[in-house]
Amino acid sequence: MEKYIMSLDQGTTSSRAILFDKRGNIAAIAQEEFPQYYPKPGWVEHDAQEIWYSQRSVAEKAIAAAGVGPWQIEAIGITNQRETSIVWDKETGEPVYHAIVWQCRRTAPVIDGLDPEFCQYIKDTTGLVPDPYFSATKIQWILNHVEGARARALEGKLLFGTVDTWLIWKLTGGKVFVTDYTNASRTMLFDIHKLCWDEKILDYFDIPASMLAQVKPSSCVYGETLAEYFGAPIKIAGAAGDQQAALFGQCCFEPGSVKNTYGTGCFLLMNTGKTPVKSHHGLVTTIGASCSDSVEYALEGSVFVAGACIQWLRDELMMIESSAISEAVAREVEDTGGVYIVPAFTGLGAPYWDSHARGMAVGMTRGTGRGHFVRAALESIAYQTYDVLKAMEKDTGSCLKSLKVDGGAAANSLLMQFQADILNVHVQKPACLETTALGAAYLAGLAVGYWTDKEEIKANWKLARSFEPSMDRDKAEKKLKGWERAVRCALVWSRED
Ligand SMILES: Nc1ncnc2c1ncn2[C@@H]1O[C@H](COP(=O)(O)OP(=O)(O)O)[C@@H](O)[C@H]1O
Ligand SMILES: O=P(O)(O)OC[C@H](O)CO
């Protein structure tokens, strides 16, 4: 009887469950979008219970779609949107506030007020650039603004978790309170060198250590699901932040290997092995997923808005009916006609780190139409990737020849071709674009012996299509100059407010 690994991929806009077989093929998949809440400009929230219900529901649907029994699922691997912060009551299991999402900018004033010496301490200890993006100031905000929360936290009655911790806690009926190294490294509270929560940072943000989960490797058995959920207990044996899971799922096991994931945001990660590489060009140092007890590190360029810009065209501007149609609409025109969109809807992440920057569209003329606008939105994704990739090359002294890609927007061939042209590298798209979920499956499967080692996993990676650079370099450079000017506009706009 064939056995499977089930991945629970809890993303920013949807929850997914996927059953993988030994060859890394998808046996069944279920996906549900869930509501996004924008209570004020720049604020983004989720309902943690809606996250849980949607995740549980897709897991049940995927198992049913595969027509398998729970005993055929050897283990569950969890991967999640990172940094998003949930605080809940230990006794009742009720969240005390909505989950504050990684994109949320509400704590920008706290970050603006940090003194430079402490900022340096945060960088040295956590590897991160102080920013509202990370969990620390989100937890502090909840404790400061929810009535009674600080007192209850001090009495040890509240727990904090990123989404992995929340889901594992729910799946085990409140028995297991853990996170993994990759997720811990995104909180801005974790010492990535000593591998422990940092007391000085906790004190500064006034966060009681009793709220924090035990930190474990990404590949190990954390516990079992309650039997009532899937008909029998299933081991939970892998957990990793979605970007680190994608790096693992792309088999970027060797130092120097790089992937870029095009989802809501865009995240370029390079495996740097046992060495944490410090960035001097606006990237962050983070912990990578590994299947041993000792950690590996990665260098990351985090772009906040990528596919989300295409969703914005769909949902807010109603310019396109679906994200997928963006490719056909962009192909209606030869180029953007000089239009640039800088989708700084939630500020700009790497390498600019400006929480106050806001979206900008420039270069429009009376002849600008839908095709130009959609094309400019797609191109903005490739330009943002160019910015972080150049920063990575400067930090590591490397010159990238090829780039492995994945994520929802990697399905867009116009975007992938433009990416190859702008970067002047080979863009390699694997057969399985669900690399994030696959990475979590690999981590769980390795922990329970479903796969024996990384070599076995590597054999599963298959190239679907390679995009070769074909644009004249002068033309590409000219386009890049335009992008630089457009970004300058977005930055100046915020500074003059
Ligand atoms: N063909 C496409 N062209 C451009 N963008 C796309 C396409 N398909 C999906 N997207 C974008 O990709 C994102 C979804 O990708 P996904 O990897 O599921 O993201 P996440 O895990 O962040 O929820 C959405 O923002 C969507 O707009
Ligand atoms: O949900 P995604 O795939 O856009 O990923 C979000 C990132 O984890 C944020 O750091």
Task: Produce a short descriptive summary.
With 497 residues, the protein is of the alpha+beta class. It contains 17 helices and 23 strands.
Distinct helical segment count: 17
CATH H-tier superfamily of the domain at 4-243: ATPase, nucleotide binding domain
Shape: globular
Distance between the termini: 64 Å
The CATH class of the domain at 4-243 is identified as: Alpha Beta
Catalytic activity: glycerol + ATP = sn-glycerol 3-phosphate + ADP + H(+)
Domain Carbohydrate kinase FGGY C-terminal: 259-447
Binding site for ADP: 12, 16, 264, 307, 408, 412
GO molecular function: ATP binding; glycerol kinase activity
Describe this structure as you would to a colleague.
ADP binds at residues 12, 16, 264, 307, 408, 412. Its EC number is 2.7.1.30. Sn-glycerol 3-phosphate binds at residues 12, 82-83, 133, 242. This is Glycerol kinase. It catalyses: glycerol + ATP = sn-glycerol 3-phosphate + ADP + H(+). With 497 residues, the chain is of the alpha+beta class. It has a domain at 4-243: ATPase, nucleotide binding domain (Nucleotidyltransferase, domain 5). The chain is built from 17 helices and 23 strands. The chain has helices at 48-66, 108-112, 116-126, 136-145, 149-154, 163-171, 181-184, 199-205, 227-230, 242-249, 307-315, 326-331, 370-396, 413-423, 435-447, 454-458, 473-495; strands at 4-10, 14-20, 26-33, 45-46, 73-80, 86-89, 99-100, 158-161, 178-180, 190-191, 196-197, 214-216, 219-224, 235-241, 258-262, 266-273, 284-288, 296-303, 340-342, 360-362, 402-406, 426-430, 463-467. The strands form seven sheets. A seven-stranded mixed sheet has the order 17-18-16-15-21-22-23. A six-stranded mixed sheet has the order 3-2-1-5-14-13, sandwiched between helices. Helix 14 (413-423) links the parallel strand 21 (402-406) and strand 22. Helix 10 crosses helix 15 and helix 11 (307-315) runs antiparallel to helix 13. It is globular and about 60 Å long. The mean pLDDT is 95. The structure holds adenosine-5'-diphosphate and SN-glycerol-3-phosphate. SN-glycerol-3-phosphate is lined by residues 11-12, 81-83, 102, 241-243, 263-265.
